Each structure stands twice: as structure tokens, then as C-alpha cells.
UniProtKB/TrEMBL annotation:
InterPro entries in alphabetical order: DUF559, Restrct_endonuc-II-like
Transmembrane segments: none
Domain of life according to the entry: Bacteria
Protein name: DUF559 domain-containing protein
Amino acid sequence: MSRHLALLQWVRERNGVAHTSAARAAGFSKLDVARAVELGLLRRVRRSWVVAPDADPRRAAAAAVSGRTTCVTQAVLLGLWVPNHDGVHVAVASNAARFDAAGLVVHWGAGPAPVAATSNEDPLVNVLFHAARCLPRTEAMVVWESALRVRLADAAVLQAVQWGSPAARELADAASFLSDSGLESRFIAGMRALGVAVRQQIWLDGHPVDVLIGERLVVQLDGFAHHRAADRRRDIAHDARLRLRGYTVLRFDFQQVLFDWAYVEETVVLAIAQRLHVAAR
């Protein structure tokens, strides 16, 4: 295999994008790079960055500004669920200058993890950092929860990171409650602090309910995972059947349980004050 084809293969093995200093460290000369560019095997998008013809355009766009894919763009490349978004999100050095930002969402802040100048993508911890600062809290949590769900991140590790960002710190503190079981644990702890006795995973009408207070007050907790339409219809149908059987059903989502506990507490307390937890005699 010629040097130029070997270089092309080497670049493709690195997601189709490479810093020329990394190529030299791998044994390719400046002449090898220049000749590959001349032959059209590689494209120089910035003085020290080359890309393969079939490189992902988002990675190429980051290389063209000497940056790294980050935030929702890198989250997509990692296979995470992300909200709808526009533009390619790139992280650049604080002293970056003289680049065309058209079509880009530029992140200037440095994440908590150091990154090599030859890297074309942010590490996950920085991706989460930028998502927390860039997106509305609920949408940022989508990215964080997805990383936890596919086990690219660990809640305990995220809590230990020195984030340097109030938004990221808040999400890291909430990370252990993002699963359905974690959300339920948070609710149970809040109820016990009030002295309210609860029972968990009680079967009613052929299905388990998250929490039963007394004899007739059902609390359902919608986990962070987005339900499919069919799942949502099933939940609504089950709630309706429980109401027809004399139960009161309160349903809270993760946002309320984690970030609006006062509302959740007030609603449950008022329901108990109305004796909705007691069966009619």
C-alpha cells in the first residue's frame, strides 16, 4: 500500500479527521500529508487539520475551526437521545480567532476535563458540561439521562466531578434520581419526612402502582424516559379504571419531584387533608 493510501486509512480509523501533528507522530511526513491532499485523498480544512472525503460533516466542521464536537452534536455521535437542535455545536479554545462561525453553535467555556489540542471531539464529561450550560434544564437532563441509561456515565462519578458550573452541578446532584427507581426513592423519602406511611408497587386492577397512601390515594411517578404514545394511552386508561373503582390518582413527573418538591408535597398533603386516602364507609 502506498504511503498516501496508508495515511488515508489511518485518518479514516480516526473518524475521518486528524491533526497533522498526530499524523507526523504516527510516522507520516509533511510531504505525505501534502501529497495526499494534492491527490484529493484528503482535504485540508485548516492549516493543521485534514479530513477524509467521507468524513462526517459535523466532525469536519469542528476541525475547520480547530474545535471539537460537543454538547448535543457529540451526544448524537455517541448515540445518545437529544432534543431537536440547530447547528453544529463545537467547543473552541478561549483564544480561538479568525474562523467562520456560520452554521455553528460555538462553546467557549472550558469543560472540567482537559482535552488534547489534537482531539476532534470532547470527552463525555465536557459534553454534559456544555449541555447543562447550553440547553434548558429539562432538555439538558434528556442528554444526561441518556448517558446514564446506556451506561456511558455513572451517577456517583458525575457527582464527584468539580463542574465549575451551577447548572451542571444541579444536574449532577439530581443524576442518582433520574431512573424510575431513583425517582420513587426521592418521593418516598419526602413522604417519610412528613410522617406519611406509604406502600410501594402495590397491584391494583392487574397492574402495579408506584405508591399507595392509605387505602385509596394512588401516586404515579412518570420517570424521565419519554413514553411512547401507546404507553401513555395505557397509563391514562389505567388511571381511569382506578378512578372508577374509587381511587384518587395523583401523577407527578420527574421535573416536579426533583425540582418542584414544594408543589408535590402540598398536593399530597391537601389530598390527605381531604381524606382522599381513606375508603368511603
